[in-house]
């Protein structure tokens, strides 16, 4: 079960934005910008990565997990979902 | 108070690594890779951004904050440090 | 869909343990114990609360969400699951 | 360097509130309340514990760490502060 083309475009657009933010932070460090301002940018990057992860979790649950459950199974998929949530929310 | 040249190099090296990971995630989405694998990558990106933030917090505290306290002040710097920690640990 | 009696007992046992830890922190503050030691205890409380939440999320997904999907629906349950994950992982 | 009596009272009051929330969650589980409602409560407990931790971090930085820096040292205190932040923000 894959992302729809539209979802994929949105995800990639958001990832490109994060890529730009990461490059922005590199420049801030090169330019000796004030630490606090850099930290605020890093917090924004973490938060944006988290939001993308939640989006993926949602489409994965709606897709793979739902299909597996409808096919009479799903136990393994739910176990896997919980494992990744443990890693992702650490 | 700035980062030392050596610290700056390490920070930028680590940020370039994250930039590469972000591009890797874009490619994984384009290639319809399995969501769980993408989520593990996103968790790694969040964790790496967090570590860079902690490094910056440390050098900022050792630098700016310490200097301000030694100069007989520091109250504003500590307030600002706590504000950024609130944002950063959200 | 409810927790099994056994799961409920485990959850309540773990919550009682956290309750004891919270009282321990109160005593540490009354006794002017070293801040760092108190913070380590608070980190343990946060981590234990998080683990209980993940356990509940898992049994909820295996229970309510799976049942709803098997009954041909589940969309609302998945939306609700994602909403609570947004709150829970903030 | 200890908390002021007033700060201690506020901290203990907030911890008692969390203790009450933990007992509330136990009752919700005994009463088979809806998982999502319990998870919202657990998220509130985590968030309240986090806020208490930030308060303690702030008074510790204003107290112990500032005193140590004014006395011409502080390196060990900053290292310890960063260690606890690593644990606390995990």
Automatic annotation (TrEMBL), chains A, B, C, D:
UniProt key word Ribonucleoprotein: no
Keywords tagged on the record: DNA-binding
InterPro entries linked: Metal_Tscrpt_repr, Metal_Tscrpt_repr_sf
Bilayer-crossing regions: none
One GO molecular-function entry: DNA binding
CDD domains (UniProt xref): CsoR-like_DUF156
Pfam hit, one: Trns_repr_metal
GO biological process, one term: negative regulation of DNA-templated transcription
Stated name of the protein: DNA-binding FrmR family transcriptional regulator
Tagged with keyword DNA-binding: yes
């Amino acid at each position: 079960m894959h992302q729809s083309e539209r979802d994929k475009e949105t995800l990639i657009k958001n990832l490109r934005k994060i890529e730009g933010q990461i490059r922005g932070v590199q420049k801030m460090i090169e330019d000796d910008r004030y630490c606090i301002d850099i930290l605020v940018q890093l917090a924004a990057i973490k938060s944006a990565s988290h939001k993308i992860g939640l989006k993926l979790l949602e489409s994965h649950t709606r897709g793979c997990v739902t299909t597996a459950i409808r096919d009479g199974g799903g136990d393994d998929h739910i176990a896997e979902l919980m494992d990744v949530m443990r890693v992702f929310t650490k």
